[in-house]
Design brief:
Length: 76
């Protein structure tokens, strides 16, 4: 079974305000809000589930909450 990982990243660093959905580590298109990026990730994940894939969706927490974050520059 193939595994698909969708990760909502961004919103901090030099690209502040831009959010992306990384799919298996590769950056996707920009979204203006974290929520919009999440909705896009869920839509893509739904299609992958229909095709029989195992799916993970990861949404980073905020830096203010003391959680590590990833910037868009971290993506390949």
């Amino acid at each position: 079974m193939r595994s698909e990982i969708y990760e909502v990243v961004g919103g901090n660093g030099p690209a502040s305000g831009a959010w992306q959905v990384a799919h298996n580590g590769k950056a996707g298109m920009d979204y203006s809000t974290k929520e919009a990026a999440f909705e896009a990730a869920v839509a893509a994940a739904s299609l992958a589930i229909r095709d029989g894939a195992e799916v993970s969706i990861v949404v980073q927490g905020s830096a203010e909450a003391g959680r590590p974050t990833r910037d868009l520059a971290d993506l390949t």
